Amino acid sequence: MSDELIELEEEEYTSQLTAPVLRRIMGLLKPHSIWVFGFFVTIALVSGLDAYFTYLNKQIIDQGIALQDRERVFEIAAIYGTFILFQAGAVFTFIYLAGVLGERIQYDLRKLLFNHLQDLSLSYYAQNAVGRLIARVTSDTGRVSDLLTWGIVDTTWALMNIISSTVFMAIINWRLALIVLTIIPVMVVIAIEFRKRILAEFRVSRRTNSKITGAFNENFQGVRVVKALGREDSNTREFQSLTTMMYRASYRAAWLSALFLPTVQVIAAIALGMLVGYGGLQIEAGLMTIGGIQAFVSYLTFMMWPVQDLARVYAEMQHSIASAERIFNLADTPPEVHDRPGAVPASTLLGEIEFDHVDFHYEDRKPVLTDFTLEVKPGEMIALVGPTGGGKSTIVNLLCRFYEPRQGQIRIHGRDYTDFTLESIHSKIGIVLQTPHLFSGTVRENIRYGRLEASNEEVEQAAKVAGAHDFIVTLEKGYEHNVGEGGNLLSVGQKQLISLARAVLARPELFIMDEATSSVDTLTESLIQRGMEALMKGRTSFVIAHRLSTIRRADRILVIENGKITEKGTHSELLKLKGHYYRLYTQQFRHELETRYGFADAVGLPETADQPQPLPAD
Ligand SMILES: Nc1ncnc2c1ncn2[C@@H]1O[C@H](COP(=O)(O)OP(=O)(O)OP(=O)(O)O)[C@@H](O)[C@H]1O
Ligand SMILES: [Mg+2]
Q1: Where are the domains of the chain?
Q2: Does residue 517 carry a pLDDT above 60?
Q3: Helix/strand/coil (H, E, C) string of 481-517?
Q4: Which atom of ligand 1 is nearest to the CA of 364?
Q5: Ligand 1 proximity of 332 Cβ (cutoff 6 Å)
Q6: What is the distance in A from the centroid of ligand 1 to the CA of 259?
Q7: For the chain, first and last CA: distance in Å?
Q8: DSSP labels for 94-125?
Q9: Model pLDDT for residues 420-433, shown as the tens digit of each residue
Q10: Is 126 close to ligand 1, i.e. is its CB under 6 Å away?
Q11: Measured between alpha carbons, how far is 546 from 519 in angstroms, rounded to an integer?
């Protein structure tokens, strides 16, 4: 996905708070309402007590010290002590509750997204960069859970502080309380303005940051290519312009942040001046005590922070809401390939498989298969060969139902395969892909992925059948050897052998192998071939291979060019046809002979075999 698109996407989601979204966000709290209630109560307690302490201070000043009433002073001290303990308990409780609640919400959201992402079709992954999906799962869930915990904590606390302070101020002197209250809206507006601007800068910086992460990712994932092409310098320049951009945005954010506090302080000072001036007059008139003025000053500062907190939460909330919308949007994306209503489990895939006039294109609408028709008998081995980009992998993608035909049908045992559940189809297919994927973990765990309940003996048996056992035991820790992230610590051929063992263990009814022998040496290849043959007995299989030696024994070989079958037959039939297959085969054979023995003519291969020949009419 290009950067512009990512930005567009970000813009698209910075929407205002709307009632349905808010309702849905709040809905996330529903399963945890006890915890939410818990922190409302504790926060109310904390802030009420805070305001009360100030009131007690006033009493100490007015009564205890002014009247030299020692008993009253001790009494107040005792009240103080008790309430401080209460408050400490409450503070502990709500921080703890918010922490736990945050984790729970994140857990819920991650589970939701993870499960949904697993269900989404391959087409979704073809269109959405995996990195962005990961970011969505991690950072967006974090932001939403922050909003629902600390956001609510801060808001409640701030509101409670304002309310309780107001109540106590009104008790002391309601006219003065009104003056203080007029300051609040001014503060709120200024604080919100500042916060918005600061956050906007942070956003630029964050967006740049994600680009930088992307650059890191691309650069170092493809480090070999970068080095080989000597792209280091230009990549460095690109990287520098990004970091400069990020630096500037962060710099502006820092400047605004620095300006914010002094502004607030000046306004607070003005309010304080008014308070002391008017309060002084009230004292002269005997309507106010020194302790009262002191309490008002405390309440004023006590209200400054909540106001700023509210502004901060408000500004951040918009981004959390954007995160929430992205999460909901992802969770609402229906998988393109999904179970039809009333789908039933397929009892077996070992029936006749038919591609009936199948048309298929990927999202770009460029036709890949048109009117593709093929009938496969149970237990048959079908080999697909042909030029790159011809559509071989697409055919097996459709067969596995990673995608579904746009037109036409794929039938199993005479029944449209969309009548069956995806799970039942997938569980009966064993597949070894063009780019084998292993999960980080041990060799044994990777093989066992094929059938989780398999015993150690069965795992090793499968490895033997697949021809993987011999190399596995030469690994430092044998079956307990760690394969690294994505199997990176092994060679491609080794990964393929392990994938093959995994497929053997799964005991599939339909076996699919996409060019699994393309990147292994001849010895490994013959190992794989033996494994495959063992695996293919009694199952239907589709094998795609560029190395034709692998597929000589296939029941039928199909040459796929431009999404069409241009030749079909057994190995010897196709050789007789002297078409594309013949040319491919003789080329490979000649090449092999030349590299191994340094000659080719002796076996009587025609010189012209290398030259393109017109295809025989179909
Ligand atoms: N996810 C995708 N989105 C869009 N187009 C795709 C996608 N995958 C493949 N294609 C296109 O579909 C056509 C057939 O591709 P396919 O992968 O089936 O070829 P192939 O015969 O397996 O080639 P190869 O021998 O190189 O593996 C190609 O033109 C390719 O560009
Ligand atoms: Mg392919």
Answers
A1: 3-332, 342-428+540-574, 429-507, 578-609
A2: no
A3: CECCHHHCCCCHHHHHHHHHHHHHHHCCCEEEEECCC
A4: 4
A5: no
A6: 56
A7: 42
A8: HHHHHHHHHHHHHHHHHHHHHHHHHHS-HHHH
A9: 998 899 888 888 87
A10: yes
A11: 10
Mean pLDDT of 343-348: 90
Query: Is the distance from the beta carbon of residue 389 to the nearest atom of ligand 1 less than 6 Å?
Result: yes
From atom 17 of ligand 1, which residue's Cα is the shortest distance away? 393
Is residue 374's pLDDT more than 90?
yes
CA distance 493 to 505: 18
Is pLDDT of 609 > 80? no
- DSSP helix/strand/coil, 466: helix
- Measured by CA distance, the residue closest to atom 25 of ligand 1 is 388
Residue 197: strand, helix, or coil:
helix
- To which residue do tokens 């790159």 refer? 388
Q: Is the CB of 364 under 6 A from ligand 1?
A: yes
Q: Which CATH number fits domain 342-428+540-574: 3.65.10.10, 3.40.50.1980, 2.130.10.10, 3.40.50.300?
A: 3.40.50.300
pTM, full prediction: 0.68
Rounded to an integer, what distance in angstroms lies between the CA atom of residue 281 and that of residue 290? 12
DSSP calls for 15-44:
PPP-HHHHHHHHHTTGGGHHHHHHHHHHHH
Could you tell me whether strands 407-412 and 415-416 are parallel, antiparallel, or unpaired per DSSP bridges? antiparallel
Which tens digit of pLDDT belongs to each residue from 193-219?
888 888 788 878 878 888 888 888 777
- Positive or negative, the Cα torsion across 423, 427, 429, 433? positive
Distance between CA atoms of 196 and 235, rounded to whole angstroms?
34
Report the range of poorest mean pLDDT among 142-156, 302-316, 338-352.
Answer: 302-316
Cβ–ligand 1 distance for 368 under 6 Å, the answer: yes
**Residue 528 Cβ contacting ligand 1 at under 6 Å:** no
Work out the average pLDDT over 322-338. 85
Helix 3-13 to helix 174-221 angle, to the nearest 10 degrees? 160
Cα(336) to centroid(ligand 1), Å = 19
What is the reported pLDDT for 276? Answer: 86
Fold assignment, 3-332? ABC transporter transmembrane region fold (1.20.1560)
